[in-house]
Structures are given as C-alpha cells and as structure tokens.
Amino acid sequence: MAKAARAIIIENGKILVMYRNKYGSEYYTLVGGRLADQETPEQALVREVHEETGLQITEARLVFIENHPEPYNDQYIYICKVAPYGETKLQEASEEAMMNRLDANIHKPMWADARTFSRLAFRTPALLKAIVDGLNHGFPEEPKTL
Q: Which of 6, 11, 23, 103 would bridge with 32, disulfide CB 3.0–4.6 Å?
C-alpha cells in the first residue's frame, strides 16, 4: 500500500490548501504527497511541502491517519509550523509545476480562510470534518485514525 504525507499549516487565520483541477474534477486537498522509496512520512512531508509551496517545515506532529483502499494512498496528516516565508508557490522543478505546464493536472497552493474552510469542495469529507473539528476544538495529541 502506497503512503502519502500531508500538512495542515495554519497562519494568520488561514489554512494552506492545494487547489486541484484533475482532468476537469475540481477540488481542494492539503499540500503533500506520496512517499518516495526508503523515505519516512516525515521526510516526505518536508520534501513535498517545500516542492509544492517553497515553505520549510520547522515542527510537525502527526494528528490523523486516513486509510484508503487500493489504488489510493494511506494519508499521514501532520499539523505543522513553518519558517518565516515570502510568497507561497510551486517550485519550478516540482512534478506539480511540470503538470501545470502541460495543462493536464492543475495544482495551485492557496491560503483559505479558516472560518470558511468547511465550505471548500474538499477531496475527502472525513478529513475535512476532522480538520474543522481540530480548528474549533484543538487537534488531537495522539494520532487519530479516520
């Protein structure tokens, strides 16, 4: 089973999301992606967040595990803090930027207002609900399986 690591990054009342238009299907998800060979979820998290946003993670705590049947990835979701940053954008060498240039599978990192986050067309309803609950009541200290 393939695995992926994703980040919940909250800054100034906004949460970082990835807008996707995957062959006409428009939705939002968290930034992050699949683990490479021999990579831990934490290593993949740092690499993927940097590739997709240019941000550097300084702290990460696993809060959710979202299991999915094949062919989808099990998701390891971390609440993260990042180093001070400027513009949030895809890095030119990233796989996502390459797909954008081919106009086949669009990725766009963006900051969504945390107060209206629950209204986004989020990819998985269970994760959306868990994040909204975390925003309202705090994220779990121990990882919670969704």
A: 6
Average pLDDT of the segment spanning 114-129: 92
Q: 31, 110 in Cβ contact below 8 A?
A: no
SS (H, E, C) 74-128: EEEEEEEEECCCCCCCCCCCCHHHHHHHHCCEEEEEEEEEHHHHHHCCECCHHHH
Question: Rounded to whole angstroms, how far apart are CA atoms 37 and 97?
Answer: 21
pLDDT at 142: 96
Return the axis-axis angle of helices 41-53 and 95-102, rounded to nearest 10°: 40
| Cβ atoms < 10 Å from Cβ of 99 | 15
Mean pLDDT computed over every residue of the chain: 91
